[in-house]
Amino acid sequence: MTEAKTHFDKRRPLHACPGLPRDLYPGAVITHEHLELLRQPAVVELIQSDEMPIPATEDRENYYDERHIEYWISGLADCRKMESYLPSGRARYLDFGGATGRVSRHITRNAEREVWLCDINANWIAWIDQYFNRPIRAFQNRIQPSLPLEDGYFDLVSAFSVFTHLDQDEMPWLLELRRILRPGGYLYLTVLDENVWNRLKDPAWEWLFRSIARGRNDAFLAERCQKPLEERVVLEYSEAEAYNINTFLPRGYLERKWGPLFDEINFFEDNHNYQTVVVLKKP
Predict the structure, then answer these.
(1) Which segments within the chain are labelled E, that is strand?
(2) CA-to-CA distance for 199 and 117, rounded, in angstroms?
(3) DSSP tag of 165
């Protein structure tokens, strides 16, 4: 049975790209980690030699607003953090929920890597098909947890800001990503855990509270975040078919539910902006 179309299938014209990375350099960069990268001559050289345009803000889910170079650098930062989980030489990588290739554009600069990307939004895949000028295998996946990929194919699968938005399909998607990993391969996922939760009651993190509550959960969240995060919390913020919630996953829950499926589970706080990275190794 064919899955019904959703608003993620609705195509629209792509926005004009603001330019190549070197056209937008140095630009506004405000995050300390990204500023440190920008000071490295090797990174500036990568900016100058990158012939792939940067997506318009509207074509990258508004990440980093008009700070185009910071968008580029954020992908490089995540790429470098993941590289130790890729074998040297030939390697296969899937950017699950990869949007318009914020991370994949950097992974593809190593010609020995076979890079795949999928996303539920047809427009992000259209952008990649039009603008990517390095080899990448991109396709639109469906909302339901199923991927048209063979068992044990990938060395590394990442999912940035994906499990932060899953509810009932959390475990089915985790099992599907595990299926396509080779034995000894790694999942590199980001979550909202206690480290994020504990900041919601801090006035200095009011912007994060607003981003999570989105005007629909303000009163509930303001009261609930005064208590420790001891159970899974799901906050719906839109009527969309998917990608319409923020999900908090305590580490105890992750160790109990996810941990037995893998040889290793490791946590890295603030390793993707304010989100915690979870790295899992398949037996």
Answers:
(1) 91-96, 113-119, 137-140, 154-159, 181-191, 233-236, 245-248, 264-272, 275-281
(2) 32
(3) G
| DSSP code for 42 | H
Q: In angstroms, what CA-CA distances link 22 with 49, 78, 201? A: 8, 20, 40
Query: How many CB atoms sit inside 10 A of residue 205's CB?
Result: 16
Burial environment of residue 88 by CB neighbours within 10 A (0 to 12, 13 to 18, 19 or more) = exposed
Asked if pLDDT for residue 212 goes beyond 50, the answer is: yes
Q: What is the pTM of this model?
A: 0.96
Tokens found for residue 75: 């992908």
Q: What is the pLDDT of residues 106-129, one digit of tens each?
A: 999 999 999 999 999 999 999 999
Residue 253 confidence (pLDDT) above 90: yes
Q: Quote the strand ranges of 143-212, DSSP E.
A: 154-159, 181-191
% of residues, the chain, pLDDT over 70: 99
